[in-house]
Amino acid sequence: MSIDSLTALVRTLPDFPKPGIQFRDITTLLADGAGLRELVDHMAAIARPLDPDLIVGVEARGFILAAALAHALGKGFVPVRKAGKLPGRTVGIDYVLEYGADRLELHEGQMPQGARVVLVDDLIATGGTARAAAQLLREQGASVLMALFAVDLPDLGGRQMLEEDGVATASIMAFAGH
């Protein structure tokens, strides 16, 4: 399956979550067995040479891809969740989104010092969530080898912002516009 075939499996929902946004919904790709396998295979081909210790997924669709990637690479998976979703003691970071503010958390002590991680999410737009997740991981002693996304919206500048912060990035597909 080609990248164009994968791209065709991503549904665009206009005006979600607010007017003017073209939401790129990967759930249609996830529902296609061959498409999901191909997407994870592409992600694994990028991440495997980095030899990460852990794969970190960002809530919520990032969990799906990160867990599948962790399985493909034989690595562990660590979730980065929104505030109040993890049981027990957590560490977190507050950040600003294009349409509000939020907080990300992970379990206190779950990130081994010096752990080499690949950060995974379904999509990068403005980069605020990925930047916050990378900062949180670094504050916990991890080395973020790369942020890996299924979809990039390059017109919103998130990938460039992450790279300026010293986080290598890669994506499988890109869509112009918002």
Automatic annotation (TrEMBL):
It is an enzyme of class 2 (transferase). One of its GO terms (biological process) is purine ribonucleoside salvage. Pathway: Purine metabolism; AMP biosynthesis via salvage pathway; AMP from adenine: step 1/1. Pfam families: Pribosyltran. Keywords: Cytoplasm, Glycosyltransferase, Purine salvage, Transferase. One of its GO terms (cellular component) is cytoplasm. Residues 51-144 form the Phosphoribosyltransferase domain. InterPro entries: Ade_phspho_trans, PRTase-like, PRTase_dom, UPRTase/APRTase. Coiled coil: none annotated. One of its GO terms (molecular function) is adenine binding. Its EC number is 2.4.2.7. It catalyses: AMP + diphosphate = 5-phospho-alpha-D-ribose 1-diphosphate + adenine. It is found in: Cytoplasm. PANTHER family: ADENINE PHOSPHORIBOSYLTRANSFERASE (PTHR32315:SF3). Homodimer. Catalyzes a salvage reaction resulting in the formation of AMP, that is energically less costly than de novo synthesis. Belongs to the purine/pyrimidine phosphoribosyltransferase family. This is Adenine phosphoribosyltransferase. It comes from Sphingobium baderi LL03. The gene is apt.
